[in-house]
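DM from R.C. (forwarded with permission)

"hey, sorry to bug you on a friday — could you get me a structure for this? deadline for the figure draft is monday and I only need the backbone to look sensible"
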Amino acid sequence: MKFQLTDEQRALQEAVRDYLGDRFGQQQVRAFYDANDETGIPADLWKAIGEQGWLAVMVPEEHDGIGLGLLDASVIARAFGACTVPGPWLGTVVAGEAIRLAGSPDQQAKWLPRIAAGEVKAAVALLKQGTSNQPAATASGGTLSGNLGLVEYAAQADLLVVSADDGLDLVEPAAASITPREALDRTTRLAEVILDGATAEKLANGNPLAELVDRAAVLAANDLVGIARKALTDTVEYDKTRVQFGKPVGSFQAIKHDLADIHLAVTMAEHAALYAAHAQDIDTADKVVAASIAKAKAGDTANAATSAMIQYHGGIGYTWEHDSHFYLKRAKRLEYAFGDASQHRERIASLVLA
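My reply, with the result:
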């Protein structure tokens, strides 16, 4: 199926990138990295994310949102990946989707306007870590139990969305045991979350866990392709000017051919990630397999592009002073979010064979 971004979506992508480039570029990311503060959320940036409507993108208009689709949110995710933006945008948006898909009218009215305005930071624990389809917690008598593993921004969240064996639940962070843990990628914050009979509020309208995981995986895939494209672009520009043996290293065939292969991989991953979002929006028959293709390709490609970025920047690429490690670490983190490449390839095989 052929499709392309609309003029409005392209304008949104450019607007997000321009805004971040002007107000939260690599200098600010580096300062945030070095500070390593516990909050993990630059206050001015989070305020701007709310004011710009980037949290409201998929919130329905009747709940003070913009009411757009997953493709529009994916455009924002790509820009966030390219700029290595810190903060709980992804978790908060996915939590909003959980409430939109499964919440009662009262639950939606309580939470969605606050999410859209940036008044609520949310974290999600959708799958038991190391699995591709098992819920994160066990439900019993209106309470939840289980070790949710490492959850992004759980210690900073105002709300947790947790999947259990009987559906999706809202959990107040105070009801959980939350222990902050060190993260390799400092554009996020991690915490171990343990529930031991925690009081939970069931989302009342069914259990769309599989759909929610797919939508989250598509957003992560678009973040990954944003990382991959930025890593490739910066590497090509650097190797046009880096000189060895009296020649730009970019003129050596071994480098040219490898970067050309990565360019093809990035382009294919970009199309796969955007198509997967489009497929979710219009509910195509192949939307499930499209989500897995997107996540698998994006994870593999971002890993290849960021690894090449470090290698082809030579000695400087391995240093803390160079920005390449921002991209590598973010790619490594997101590679495993909502299913890694191996898990999604297994699902693709099962879907195709079925």
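R.C.: lifesaver. The longest helix spans residues 209-241.
me: no worries. The CA atoms of residues 4 and 275 lie 9 Å apart.
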